[in-house]
Amino acid sequence: MTITKLARQVNPALKEVRIGVRREDPRRIWERRVPLTPDAVYDLVSTGNVVVSVQSCSRRIFKDEEYQKAGANVVKSVNHNDFDIVLGIKEPLVEEITPLKPSPTRLVPHSPTHFMFSHTIKGQAYNMPLLSKFVAPSHSKKPSTLYPDLIDFELITSSEGGKRTVGFGWFAGGELAGVLESLASMAQAHLEIGIASPFLYTPRPHTLPSLDRLRAALKEIGETIAANGTPAALGPFVIGLTGNGNVSQGCLSMLQELPIEKVRVEDLEALVKNPTTSLNKIYLVHAQPEDYFIRSDGGKYSRDHYYSSPQSYVSVFAERIAPYLTLFLNGTGWSPSFPRLMSNDQLATALSRAQTLGGARFTNIGDISCDVEGGLQFLTKATTISSPFYKVRTDDMSAELPAVQMMSVDILPASIPLDASNHFSSALGPYLKGLIECQLNPDKAPYPEALARARIASEGVLTNKHKWLQPAVDEVHMASGSRAHVAPVDGQQEKPRVVDQSKVPPETATRAPEKKHKILMLGSGMVAGPAVDLLASTADVQLVIGSNSLLEMQSLAAPHHNVAYRMVDIGRRDTYEHLIKDADVVISLLPAPMHPEIAKLCIQHRSHLITASYIAPEMEALALEAKRADITILNEIGLDPGIDHISARAMLSDISAKSLHVSSFTSFCGGLPAPEDSHVPLRYKFSWRPNGVLTAATNPATFKLKKEIIKVPGEDLLKTVFPNLPISDKFELEGIANRDSLKYMPVYRTERAETFLRGTLRYPGFCSLMQSFRSLGLLNQSDKIHVQDWTTFVNQCVSLHLNIQDGPLPPLSSIIPLEDVAQLHDALVFLGLARSPLQAIADTKPMPPLPEGNCTPLDVFAYLLSHKLKYGRNERDMVVLAHEVVTRCPKTNDYRVHTSNLTVFGKLAADPDLQRGERPASAMARTVGIPVALAARMVARNKETFKRGVLRPTSKDIFMPLMSNLEEMGLGMKEATSKLGKQDARRTVSASVYESYSNATRFERDVAGNGRSAGDLNDTSKYLDREWVDEWPEGEEGDFMKKDGRV
Question: What keywords does the record list, in alphabetical order (predicted)?
Answer without folding.
Answer: Amino-acid biosynthesis, Lysine biosynthesis, NADP, Oxidoreductase
